[in-house]
UniProtKB/TrEMBL annotation:
Organism: Streptomyces tuirus
Name of the featured protein: Carbohydrate ABC transporter permease
Location (main, coarse): membrane
Compartment(s) of residence: Cell membrane
Cross-referenced SUPFAM superfamilies: MetI-like
Alphabetical UniProt keywords: Cell membrane, Membrane, Transmembrane, Transmembrane helix, Transport
BP terms from Gene Ontology: transmembrane transport
InterPro entries (alphabetical): MetI-like (IPR000515), MetI-like_sf (IPR035906)
Source domain of life: Bacteria
GO CC, one annotated term: plasma membrane
Transmembrane segments: 16-38, 83-104, 116-138, 150-170, 191-216, 249-271
């Protein structure tokens, strides 16, 4: 009789420790989200007084109150305003930043190097340093209390970070493709639109994701330019929700926070694989 020896692989405790550490870090990062969801269903007297994560009973009326909105403006109107601003900002950044990046990455013109360096230097310029001059310009144009100050700058390639991101991606594309298009009679703009732009999709989707999230969560700029409640976004409504109600309305406020969080989560989940691909192929190149 022959016996077969069964070999057991040794347990790699280092790998187990790494996995447990990652799981612990994941739980720590997800706890604020779980707390937000649980608090949105808590009764008013438990939001501040109780430290328990789970509510004593589910208060679904918080969501019905949140859906009514604030200042006689429904949450659907607020959601539409936020989507309008975020969508316009995404469209403006993707178009203008890709055009500027194509000029810096693929075209040859005088002072290209100094202009690109100046553009990169604007990343270090604080947003608050240009807010007052921009406000004066838009006020003189009569555009304050409209959505134009929040959307129009995005069509002027003012986001140097996204220009740099797309430039790094375009520099990795083979120039033979444009040379072949030029032989077929394509000019610079047609080569950009037909050849370069489709190949830059990962970087463009990365730009769209970051622009959507940053614009959706923007509070200060929207607070400066928007006055009328019917033009408020969900971000501004969260602030005025407590002002228009009392301290007992913390439950509906957290319910509205969950509603405001859903579009960002859905947008990120829909395009997150392109985000990883764009950052890996664009931001890490020399």
């Amino acid at each position: 009789m022959t016996s077969t020896a069964v070999t057991h692989k040794p347990v790699r405790w280092g790998r187990v420790a790494v996995h447990l550490g990652c799981l612990a870090a994941l739980l720590v990062m997800l706890y604020p989200l779980a707390w937000l969801l649980a608090t949105s269903l808590k009764p008013a007297d438990e939001v501040i007084a109780s430290l328990d994560l789970l509510p004593s009973h589910l208060e679904w009326s918080n969501y019905s109150t949140a859906l009514e909105g604030v200042n006689d403006v429904s949450v659907w109107r607020l959601l539409g305003n936020s989507l309008l601003i975020a969508g316009g900002a995404v469209l403006g950044n993707v178009l203008s930043c890709s055009l500027a990046a194509y000029a810096f990455a693929r075209l040859r013109f005088r002072l290209r190097g100094p202009l690109f360096a100046f553009m990169i230097a604007t990343i270090m310029l604080p947003h608050h340093a240009v807010l007052i001059p921009q406000y004066i310009i838009f006020n003189q144009l009569g555009l304050v209390n409209t959505y134009w100050p929040l959307i129009l700058p995005k069509f002027l390639a003012t986001e140097a970070f996204f220009v740099f991101l797309i430039v790094q991606f375009m520099r990795g594309l083979p120039r033979e493709l444009e040379e072949a298009a030029r032989i077929d009679g394509c000019g610079p703009f047609r080569s950009f639109w037909k050849v370069v732009l489709p190949l830059t999709r990962p970087a463009l989707i990365t730009t769209a994701i970051f622009t959507f999230i940053w614009t959706w969560n923007d509070f200060f700029t929207q607070l400066i330019y928007l006055f009328d409640p019917d033009k408020f976004t969900l971000t501004l409504a969260l602030r005025s929700f407590v002002d228009a109600s009392s301290t007992s309305a913390f439950g509906p406020m957290f319910a509205m926070s969950v509603i405001a969080l859903l579009p960002i989560v859905l947008f990120f989940l829909a395009f997150q694989r392109f985000l990883v691909e764009g950052m890996a192929s664009s931001g890490l190149k020399g």
